[in-house]
Amino acid sequence: MTIPSLVFAALIASLYGALYHLIRDGGPGRLFLYLIFSWVGFALAHLVGIRQEWLLLPVGQLNFGLSTIGSLLSLILGDWISHIRMDDIQTFSDDENGV
Question: Model pTM?
Answer without folding.
Answer: 0.79
